[in-house]
Structure formats: structure tokens, C-alpha cells
Amino acid sequence: MAIKKSDLYSSLWASCDELRGGMDASQYKDYVLFMLFIKYVSDKYAESDDFAPSVNIPKGASFKDMVALKGKSDIGDRINKRVIAPLVAANARLARSDFPDFNDPNKLGEGDAMVKRLDNLIGIFQNPALDFSRNRAEHDDILGDAYEYLMRHFATESGKSKGQFYTPSEVSRVIAQVIGITPQNTKAATTAYDPTCGSGSLLLKVAAQSGKQITLEGQERDVTTAGLARMNMILHDFPGANIISGNTLVEPKFKEGEQLRTYDYVVANPPFSDKTWSTGLVLGENGASDKYSRFGWGVPPAKQGDYAYLLHIVRSLKAKGKGACILPHGVLFRGNAEAVIREQLVRSGYLKGIIGLPANLFYGTGIPACILVIDKENAAARKGVFLIDASKGFIKDGNKNRLREQDIHKIVDAFHNQIEIRGYSRLVDLDEIKRHEFNLNLPRYVDGAEAEDIEVTRKKIKNVHLSVYPPDGRVTLTAPKATRLEVARAYAISKLGWIREQQRKLERQARESPRNFIERESHYLWGRRYLMTIVEKEVKPGVSIDHKRITLTVRPGSDEDKRKRIVHEWHKKLLHEAVPPLMQKWQHRLNVNPTGYFLQRMKTKWGSCNHIAGNIRLNTELVKKPKDLLEYVIVHELAHLLEPTHSERFAAILDEHFATWREARVELNELPLAAEAW
């Protein structure tokens, strides 16, 4: 009997709801994924006759033994001591840190609440349809697929900093294909490595593309995420994969003697612009003291670690090795130390291609990224770099963008066959790259803009107005009535550089998915997530809040617009309570005398200042963000009363009075704006 994916997924999501409560997605995922893991390995290995099963299940430590603990007052403690501890002791590749604490009252509740929650969670996995010892899956990887499915959804809900353990499946598939691994060129001895492996999804896509049981090794800085990766490997039938926790740059775990181990394939999605990459490293002058000789082309900037990870990858490849790394677009054009490294990378011949991806694909950030494809084979003979601008090929999926099958196929087909497509892909020779001083910014080489992309209207006006509108970068040009259409279009095309810059700014601004103001919908207030409860009564509409829920009371039959207005007025009330004390505090500290403040829906800004009138405007969306970020915006706008521009003097004012303003700015600009279009 086959297990249907839809049945499996719905059962797993039921368990999520059972645990959800007030727990953050980044926490409750650990319990749900462990349940899937223990159920699978128990069914497959608990009664195995194999001489050396991939996973040893000690007596008393199976899923059936967890079932026997239901109703016990100390069920959480018994799961920790009688199931998890023996399981870890019997399997060298597993660690206690891989699994959550089932006796944590802060997450699971106390007393009867904990017992009930764990009883219900175990009960969900007692479903006969989830008996993996008797059932075959529709596809061999169904459990691994379910694990990936859960991680993707957990990443979606986990917020900007906690979703980085997961690389979107579609991007992983692109990487696995463009590095060129196939069943025909792999064997059991083929090796693949991910130095920042997260939950292992990218490494597993490479293994799947190989079609064989190749050797997989990965390192992950976060201990809990390394545990996710180990479980992921087992559920995808790669129990021999070697996943070790630790800091790859400071203390790489995979070595041959005192040198880095080298691999046939290396892939990675490292943390973007890691500001702490060099902490603990002994680099010396020009990187000469690095014991693994990774920085011969130069030392990356202290606050931007992108090239540090790329150089680690280059050093970890065999003489004919191939790799790919996901990095922010800035690595293509930033100057100083990175420009020096980029020039050496191009001159080496190792850089085979660059694939520019759409914005807002990744969990944890909305900024656009690119894939750098490395190939050491035939590097000396390489005459150019193949560039693809795939930034326009995607579909909206909730509050993220996603590559479609047709987008993946187009990227891979163009890359493998070096197909040049106008406005999309092009082989750029080294002489042209040299003329651009090794700046690899894609629009310099691949012109993706068309005159047809610009809407032209003519009105009874004197001057030309060119505008780029959120959220998708729609371009309009309004010209005087007498202007010929071809002249108007030619003018717009002449401004493509400015248009692209505005569109990139909009792409970097993540946006919420639309809110419908319905039962159990997620809403944020002061940085915390709440579930909405709708109460329909013939009373005055209003909003109240407790530690878990926002309760919206409306009259029966109220529509979405009415509900939205009620919540918006409540938001303004909360801001009018929060803003005046902060204004008073900072006008004294900055010695300014503002005439007032205004609250306003803004589509592209968090705040603004009219230094002539002496007032500031604040985006009502700030009520959804942590209060310390509201304070930062107030300080920022009040500082403009002293210095209207973002000059060095303005930065000095903020440095003096609000030392963490740069961190606050980065955090705020990575948070989504409202889902509104013009």
C-alpha cells in the first residue's frame, strides 16, 4: 500500500498545529522533525535482521516505547532519558544536541499541559498510514521530501535570521545541474562537500543528481542545524554522510593532515556578508598566516565575508573540481579588497559562469543573489565567463518568489549549451571584462530592459515625468501631448541605468503577503507574531490583545476593507501612545525642537523629515516592528532637523547619540513593507 504525499504532509502539519501555541517556528520544528525521524528509523531498523543496520535502535528506545509513555506524568523526562539518550549512545553519527529537550516547560507547558501536548503529538504519528515498515512510498524519497517540505515551511515562518538553515529546493536543483554532476561521470568514490551545509538540502540535491551513493561531507556552524542535516541524510537514505558541527573558516573539520581535504564537487550557500567571518582567524599580513593558504588572492573586508567562503571553496576543490556558491550581488561589483580578489578569480580561469537570480527567493533576506560557478578543469584555456540574468523568471508564492520549472529549465539549458539569448544570457570574453576593470555587474553585459517594458502616456503637461512604482518596478513615462511616441521611448531607454537602480531598490524591499483579516491569520505587533480571532457581535467594533491572540470584534457581515480600517485605526492609536515619549526623550538629547509628527501609510519608506517645516512622518507599518526599531526611525528623522542630508555629519550625529544605528538600519531594511501596490 502506497503512502500518499498529501496524507503524510497533512498529518505532519497537524502535529505542527498541536505544538504551535506561542512557540516560535524555529523551535517547534525541532520536535516535529524529530518525531518524523524516530518514527521512520524505528519502523525501518528497530526489528532489522541486518548485521550492521544504518541506525541502531536500542531496546526500549523505539517509537513504540514512546507510545507506551503516553499519559505518564513524567513523559518528557522519560523520552529524554529512555529514548533519546540511548539512541545517541548507540549511534556515533548522532549527537544529543541533534534533538530537542522533551522536558522543557518553557516550550511545552507544565504538568498536564505538557503531558497532553506530547500525548497528542505521539498520537498523530500512530496513524496506520504512517507505518513505514509495511508501506511503500509513492517515490523512494517521500520521507526526505516530507522533511524538506517541513523545513521549507518552517523557514518561511521563522523570520529573517532563523530561516537561513534552508536553501530553496529550486535553487539547489539549479546548482546541482550547472556544476555538471551526472550518473555517467560519477562513481562511489566521487566526493561532494558543503562547508556551510545548513540542513543539508543543497548537498542532497547534488547527490540526487549523481544518481549514486556518493560520499557526502558537510560542516555547519549551528549545532542544532547540524543535527537537522544528519537526520535529513538518514531520511534520504544517505546514513553514511558525514556532517560535523563547527566554524568552517576558523576550524575546518575535513582535512588531510594539516591541509584542507579536496573534493570533486563543492557547493555552498554561506551566510550573506558575514560580519564575523574573521573572528578567531589568524591571518597575518595579506593573509599569509592562514594555515590553509586560502587568502593568496587577498583578504576580504573585515565586515563582508562573502569572498572568504568562496576562497575556501576554491581551495577545497581538486585539480579538476567543480563548484558553485550562492552570494549576494555585491560580490560582482564592490571595490577595494574584493575588487582585487575578483580580478584574480577571473584571471585564474576558474570562474566558468554567473547566474543572477530573482530577488526575494531566500528565507531570511529579500535581497537578490547570484550563483558563481567554479570549474578548475581547462581553466587555463577558458576565454570568457558565461553570464545569465535570470532575475525576471519567477512566480510569486506567498510572501516569497519562487523559480518555476520553466525557469529552472531555461537557466540550465542556456548554461550547459552556452546559448546566447538577447537580454538573458551571453558569453563575455576576458578582454571585455578587463575593459570594465573586472566589474562583473550583470547589467553591464546583459541588457535585460526593453522599450516595451515602459508604459508611455501623453498629457497636457510641460515636462517629462519618469516613474518606477512598487512593488514590482513598473515603469511609466508621462510626456507632453506633442511628444512623438518613439522620442518618449528613446528618452526612457536613455535612463535605463537610473531605472534599474530604482528597480533594484524595490526588489530589495521584502513585502508581506496580503492580509485578509480572517480567523487564525498571522499578524505582527511590535515584532511578535499573533493569531487573529474574529468575533462577530452587534457591538462597537474594536481590537484587543492577549499574549497569543489579537481579537478583532466586528459587526456581522463586515467585509475585508472594514476590518482593515478598524485594525489600521488601532495601529495608529498604539503608535500615538508609543511615539510621544520617544519624541520627548530624543528632542532633549539632540537639542532639537520639532513642530510635530504625522502617521502615514508609506509604500517605500519607514519615515521622512521636512526640515523646513520642522516635522517628521512615520510609517504606520512600524507598529508591526520591534519597538527599538521605531525608536531608531524617530532618532534618524529628528537628526535630519540638524543635518538634512545623509552626510558624514549626519552619520557622526547618529554615532554620538545612537551607537547601534547601523545595525538597526540593516535589520529594519530587511523587514517587509506592507503588501500594497500603486
TrEMBL record:
GO-annotated biological processes: DNA restriction-modification system; methylation
Catalytic activity: a 2'-deoxyadenosine in DNA + S-adenosyl-L-methionine = an N(6)-methyl-2'-deoxyadenosine in DNA + S-adenosyl-L-homocysteine + H(+)
The entry's keywords: Methyltransferase, Restriction system, S-adenosyl-L-methionine, Transferase
Residue ranges constituting the YgjP-like metallopeptidase domain according to the UniProt record: 466-670
The N6 adenine-specific DNA methyltransferase N-terminal domain, residue ranges: 10-124
GO molecular function, one term: site-specific DNA-methyltransferase (adenine-specific) activity
PROSITE patterns, alphabetized: N6_MTASE
The protein's Enzyme Commission number: 2.1.1.72
Domain DNA methylase adenine-specific intervals: 139-453
Family under the similarity heading: Belongs to the N(4)/N(6)-methyltransferase family.
Name of this protein: site-specific DNA-methyltransferase (adenine-specific)
Species this chain originates from: Lacipirellula parvula
Organism lineage string: Bacteria, Pseudomonadati, Planctomycetota, Planctomycetia, Pirellulales
